[in-house]
Amino acid sequence: MRIGELSERTSTPRRLLRYYEEQGLITAARSPNGYRDYDDYLVDRVLQIRGLLDAGLPTRIIKQILPCLEKPRIIYFSDATPEMIGTLERERDRMTERIQCLTRNRDAIAGYLDAVRSGARSPGTAVPAAPAVTAVPPP
User: pTM above the 0.85 mark?
Assistant: First the structure.
């Protein structure tokens, strides 16, 4: 399939597909006229890549674990090295920290909205200060 079809089937911009190719995350054959030709299995692969990126994994780690992905949501390491295990543990811990921060921020905003809404129903009522929102650690 051509890049436009892969883009459409995965809702991934062509530019991003080219970037995945540059990073070695996907590969395309070239037809005689120079067009990229993608295999059908890359639809699932691109969706996996996007999911891992959305989870906060950097492309350098995705490139390392991609060969271990047989099916969506299953990671199989037949020869995981201590370095790879350590890397994945650090990424897991970083994600946990981000989740905790996002949860605190969501709760702070929800508290603020509740306070504003209850204050809006009672004219002249002071709205209590909302808890502070904190910065989310970078991915």
Answer: no
| Residue given tokens 């969506």 in the structure block | 72
Q: Give 10-residue mean pLDDT values along the chain (139 residues).
A: 95 95 93 91 92 86 79 60 84 88 89 82 56 61
- Nearest to 25, CA basis, from 57, 75, 63, 51: 63
Residue 98 CA to its chain's centroid (Å): 12
For residues 46 and 36, give the distance between their C-alpha atoms in angstroms, rounded to a whole number: 15
85-96: buried (b, 16+ CB within 10 Å) or exposed (e) per residue?
eebbeebeeeee
8 Å CB contact between 38 and 44: no
- Give, as one character, the DSSP assignment of residue 34: S
What's at 59, amino acid-wise? Answer: T
Residue 68 CB contacts under 8 Å (≥ 6 apart), including other chains: 75, 76, 77, 78
How far apart (Å, rounded) are the C-alpha atoms in residues 58 and 139? 8
